[in-house]
Amino acid sequence: YPFTPGIWTDEQVEAWKPIVDAVHAKGGIFFCQIWHVGRVSRDEFQPDGRAPISSTDKPLTPQLRSNGLDTVHYSPPRRLDTDEVASVVNDFRLAARNAIRAGFDGVEIHGAHGYLLEQFMKDSVNDRTDCYGGSLENRCRFPLEVVEAIVDEIGADKVGIRLSPYANYSEAGDSNPKALGFYMVESLNKYGILYCHMVEPRMIKVGEKKECPHSLFPMRKAFNGTFIAAGGFDREDGIKAVEEGRADLVAYGRFFLANPDLPRRFELDAPLNKYDRSTFYIADPVVGYTDYPFLEN
């Protein structure tokens, strides 16, 4: 995946340390989101130019990038053999260990948005006939093995997970998203992880928000830890979600990127900087990242 920092080598761990220290110096809490994109990739990003791995060998059609502007073409994936899954679980475990070595306060497992863990969970992608395919329990086996490995490595109080059962990013939809989300949160309770970060049903694809009858509330009630909701929230929506008990916390992405002092602006109900989608996910270290003005500027 282009322009994505890693945390699998000692050099990367060392490079993260001053960044983590800078966040802590400002009083911040810093979790490292760890992920594997699976089939949402190309041969040239893989070791020795091999095919990307997935739960399936079904290719992904060209997709609109997360910036909502460019279309990307992906390489046909290779279906992971049953006995290869354990090595990928171990990759996640090592990444979590490295995150703690780098000084992060914990890790968020990325189990959303059509990436590898969701390619196993969602029945529109997973066409396996082994112990990782077929039933809901089997499809969730690999993600839960990742959770268990990371909890064993760094402790449940340092682990969160992001899920998007209702979304259809990268052609990863499910025929029964409510059952999927409910099964995952009930299973996560066994591990006692710190939080579950879930994407609202109204967010179907990049930039596509719609009103719908579905709700995260049953999952919020079923989950024993802190529940974070994300997806399409403005200031008023976020306040209402917390006041009504639909979430403990609300996550903001685009608004936070464009407004480094977003909590202060929300407190004052001040106007927000407009975000520039064309600068999302570019490699420049300043443009689109640290060049948005603070309120006092």
Structure in words:
- The chain is 33% helix and 14% strand.
- With 297 residues, the chain is of the alpha/beta class.
- The chain has a 6-stranded parallel beta sheet. Strands 2-5 form a two-stranded parallel sheet. It has a two-stranded antiparallel ribbon with strand order 3-4.
- Helix 2 (85-101) runs parallel beside helix 5 (141-154).
- The model has no long low-confidence stretch (mean pLDDT 93).
Quick rundown:
Helices cover 33% and strands 14% of the residues.
Which features does this protein show?
two-stranded parallel sheet, 10 helices, 6-stranded parallel β-sheet, 297 residues, single chain, 12 strands, globular, alpha/beta
Helix-residue proportion: 25-40%
Widest beta sheet: strand line-up? 1-6-7-8-11-12
Please count the beta strands (DSSP E, at least 2 residues each).
12
**Helix-strand category:** alpha/beta
Shape: globular
Q: Strand-and-helix sequence, N→C?
A: HEEEEEHEHHHEHEEEHEHEHH
Strand content: 5-15%
**What is the radius of gyration computed over CA atoms, rounded to a whole number of angstroms?**
19 Å
The N- to C-terminal Cα distance equals: 35 Å
State the major sheet.
Answer: 6 strands, parallel
Q: pLDDT average, as an integer?
A: 93
